[in-house]
Specification:
Elements: E1 5-8, E2 14-19, H1 25-34, H2 37-42, H3 52-61, E3 64-69, E4 72-81, E5 87-94, H4 103-117, E6 122-128, H5 132-139, E7 145-147, E8 153-159, H6 164-186, E9 190-194, H7 203-213, E10 219-223, E11 229-230, E12 233-236, E13 248-251, H8 258-267, E14 272-275, H9 284-296, E15 299-301, E16 308-310, E17 317-318, E18 328-335, H10 338-351, E19 355-360, H11 369-377, E20 384-388, H12 395-406, E21 411-414, H13 420-430, H14 437-446, E22 450-452, H15 455-467, E23 476-480, H16 483-495, H17 505-514, E24 525-526, H18 533-545, E25 551-556, E26 576-581, E27 588-591, E28 594-597, H19 600-619, H20 632-645, E29 650-651, H21 654-663, E30 676-685, E31 689-696, H22 698-704, E32 707-711, H23 716-724, H24 729-733, H25 741-757, E33 761-772, E34 775-778, E35 781-785
Parallel strand pairs: 5-6, 9-10, 9-13, 10-12, 13-14, 14-15, 18-19, 18-20, 20-21, 21-22, 23-24, 23-25, 25-26, 26-28
Antiparallel strand pairs: 1-2, 2-3, 3-4, 4-5, 6-8, 7-8, 11-12, 16-17, 16-19, 27-28, 29-35, 30-31, 30-33, 31-32, 33-34, 33-35
């Protein structure tokens, strides 16, 4: 925190929060002296009222932090250890002009993080009873807070930590602040295109053209020192020379000119920048741009980005350089790849779908996928979110944000770079750090994000999500007028994990009355070729009415008798219907409000994704289970003693490793009591945090490489999903299996809890793990420990 970090206030304004230094003494003292008489009376929180010189000295000499708007100090907070236990006295003061904007709450959050890193677990304060504003700041923080009542002075005690309520409060405060700051990115009252060119092939000219063609409702400006007018828009030589203030600047000038343009924007009061220019990252220009946007409190999209779209009727913003302005719709997109954004825009338009918002993040200096997850959650114009992310700045925060959005709206992600060559390519064009494929899938899966691999798959899934209800389950019937398509469809359903239920006797009897005698009345249902569209539609309707059926895939081949799919428009809307027209040129097309695919495999894959979402929504988050029998004090002492004699860390002895596991209720056995060997490994990733891997052990593991990955902290549902994700899960735990599945799930949770509660543990290797009817236990264990700095993954910062 010494260098400072940018964070947002409640109104979206940006401040820098950093540790105070000796040279800040005058600024701290000046802040106190600016307080009016009322504030001076109220603003004491230590046992020494009125001793402003003491407060100033403590803020600098002790663990003090300040909030700066530009170079101006607008708030300070600090604590002072006050007893032999883990408590500290907290003090806080905010400039009168900056009060009621969330400065105090933001400083307290950062002070909590700093205190926890230094072993402080309780704050105490003395507050005047009439200082209701500060009492509200403390009580609304989200941490357990006890406020003494009676008398003119109130004692306040706050227990520190990361309970779910506190994290939820932080996230809600951050969401509101983020959305407020993004207003000038996605709904600016004025836009200046800096670098708008006179040539038809100019990127800046294309951006200005799309802005005008989209029908932008605000005021548009062009900036070009060599022109007086472009596309009917008057030009100025610089942003600062414009007659009016500008909220958003879109910059598309040569890389070497970018810092000067950004500084000009800052001086002119620009609130947000879309930086299209590439070639800044990993050069001295990058540091200069980052420093300037932090100094002036500017939100930044890019650099190396494709632009921004917001098709809301009140805004109609398009700052992309696509061939044409984006079609309006209900789908939000955030992408690190401009090419993917362009391709998706065109493909959606071809389907009659469109964008609510699109943000191309490029090299992602500031605005990221997390920002858009917050925006979409409260955006009434967006029904579905699409993500193409090649890197994650804060995966833990992403997981909580994506999960919160996915409970309300479908979230779809492109898997992205997995192979080493693809990851190198991603790093080359967006400076993205490689992410292991299994880790990325675990992150998406636990957050309820639906993962696909190609633009074609995205389109197929978006069409279904846009036009059809979710199935109630995974029971699917394939109906076709072609026997081969029926068989292939049934096979595709099984391959994608869907169930093929048997039709009820009543449904079969009705179908036999509708169909020729030689039709095959079952699942798949082969209606035979020589039937009319009305008869085919009646069959689909009867199947959908069966209580044991959740959805139908209707595959048809046009014949001389007619097109069997022509009557599907009358099908009931209460259940999911996907159509397939064999030989169709488009991968997916709109057909009377029903998605129509070219192949049964595509339809089955989409249906499986819809069913996956239904299952995830029904399962819910599942809270962190209360695991009994954990001796954290002994575990912490054991690890601490090892690190005190081995400062560089290392592998614990076998006895110490087994003792550590015993502290968390995990058995280690010398005898083989299980017929099945598995392996469980917990590793602490510097970016993703604890990662838990479950796999086949012994000879099976060496031959089959059957593994699943989960990210901590694991819920009970996450542990169950880890087991289900093994390819051999049904064979191991299904049917009449005697293996104790619940014991394995608990072992996974306890392994995760070791790394969550003792962060110095970076590797826990349980191999083999024996599972039987008697439970689950480790046959051998190795534990690696290292000194690790405190890391707060949920702190509010950009």
């Amino acid at each position: 925190m010494t260098a400072g970090t940018s964070a947002l206030l409640a109104d979206g304004d940006m401040v820098t929060v950093r540790r105070l230094r000796a040279e800040d003494f005058d600024a701290v003292l000046g802040l106190h002296q600016r307080l009016d008489e009322r504030d001076r009376y109220l603003r004491f929180f230590t046992a020494h009222p009125g001793r402003l010189d003491l407060l100033s000295r403590l803020a600098i000499e002790g663990p003090g932090i300040g909030a700066f708007r530009g170079d101006e100090l607008i708030g300070i907070a600090h604590y002072r250890p006050w007893s032999a236990d883990d408590a500290a006295e907290v003090a806080l003061v905010v400039d009168h002009a900056a009060q009621a904007h969330g400065v105090g709450t933001l400083l307290l959050e950062h002070l909590v993080s700093l205190a926890l890193a230094q072993g402080i677990h309780r704050f105490v304060a003395l507050v005047l009873a009439e200082n209701t504003r500060m009492i509200k700041v403390f009580s609304d923080l989200g941490l357990p807070c006890v406020i003494g009542r009676g008398g003119p002075e109130l004692d306040v005690e706050i227990e520190l930590g990361e309970p779910d309520r506190y994290l939820e409060r932080i996230e809600e405060r951050e969401r509101l602040a983020d959305v407020a700051s993004l207003r000038t990115v996605l709904a600016p009252a004025s836009v200046a295109v800096v670098g708008a060119g006179r040539r038809d092939d100019s990127v800046g000219r294309a951006i200005l053209r799309n802005l005008l063609d989209a029908g932008y409702t605000g005021v548009a400006y062009a900036v070009n020192p060599n022109a007086t007018e472009i596309l009917g828009v008057p030009c100025a030589p610089s942003v600062s020379s414009l007659d009016a203030a500008v909220e958003l600047a879109v910059i598309c000038v040569p890389a070497e000119s970018v810092p000067d343009v950004v500084e000009d924007c800052g001086r002119a009061g620009v609130r947000s920048i879309v930086l299209v220019t590439a070639g800044l990252t990993t050069t001295p220009l990058e540091h200069r741009v980052r420093e300037l946007v932090a100094r002036y409190g500017i939100r930044l999209v890019g650099p190396n980005c494709f632009g921004v779209v917001n098709s809301a009727p009140a805004t109609r913003l398009d700052t992309t350089f696509a061939r044409r302005a984006a079609r309006a719709g209900r789908i939000g997109v955030v992408t690190q790849s401009g090419g993917f954004g362009i391709a998706l825009m065109d493909a959606l338009a071809g389907l009659g779908l469109g964008l609510s918002t699109l943000v191309s993040t490029g090299d992602k200096y500031d605005v990221s996928g997390n920002d858009l997850l917050r925006w979409w959650r409260g955006d009434g114009e967006t029904d579905i979110a699409v993500l193409y992310l090649e890197s994650f700045g804060n995966p833990r925060k992403f997981s909580r944000l994506a999960r919160a959005l996915a409970t309300e709206k479908p979230v779809v992600a492109i898997r992205g770079a997995s192979a080493p060559a693809a990851q190198r390519a991603a790093a080359a064009h967006t400076a993205a750090q490689p992410v292991p494929a299994a880790t990325k899938l675990a992150l998406f899966g636990q957050a309820g994000v639906l993962v696909v691999d190609t633009v074609t798959e995205v389109l197929g899934l978006l069409a279904a999500l846009s036009w059809q209800p979710l199935p109630a389950g995974s029971r699917v019937v394939v109906v076709s007028n072609a026997g081969g398509a029926a068989v292939l469809g049934a096979e595709a359903c099984v391959r994608n994990g869907l169930l093929l239920p048997e039709l009820s006797r009543k449904t079969q009897d009705t179908l036999r009355r509708l169909l020729p005698e030689h039709a095959s009345v079952g699942n798949p249902l082969d209606t035979s070729a020589a039937i009319t569209a009305d008869t085919f539609a009646s069959c689909v309707t009867e199947v959908l009415a069966d209580e044991g059926v959740d959805a139908v895939i209707a595959a048809g081949v046009p014949t001389g008798v007619g097109d069997p799919l022509a009557g599907l428009a009358a099908a009931p809307e209460s259940k999911t219907v996907l159509a397939v027209r064999l030989g169709q040129l488009e991968s997916v097309a709109a057909y009377h409000g029903i998605p129509c695919y070219a192949d049964v495999e595509e339809a089955a894959a989409v249906m499986a994704k819809l069913s996956e979402r239904t299952h995830w929504l029904e399962a819910g988050k599942g809270g962190l289970p209360d695991l009994s029998g954990i001796d954290l004090a002994t575990a912490t002492r054991l690890v601490g003693e090892y690190l005190s004699s081995h400062p560089s860390g290392g592998w614990l002895s076998r006895k110490d490793s087994e003792d550590l596991l015993a502290c968390f209720g995990i058995r280690v056995t010398r005898r083989r009591f299980g017929d099945r060997e598995l392996l469980v490994r917990g590793q602490s990733d510097d970016v993703f945090g604890p990662v838990v891997v479950l796999g086949r052990g012994g000879i099976d593991g060496a031959l089959l490489d059957d593994r699943s990955t989960g990210l901590g902290p694991l819920s009970a549902n996450d542990a169950e999903a880890l087991i289900d994700s093994l390819r051999a899960s049904k064979a191991l735990f299904g049917g009449n299996s005697a293996l104790d599945r619940s014991a394995l799930a608990e072992l996974l949770l306890r392994t995760d809890r070791i790394m969550e509660l003792v962060p110095e543990v970076v590797d826990v290797d349980l191999d083999p793990v024996f599972v039987s009817a008697e439970g689950a236990a480790a046959g051998a264990v190795r534990v690696l420990v290292r000194q690790r700095p405190w890391a707060d993954h949920y702190l509010r910062r950009l």
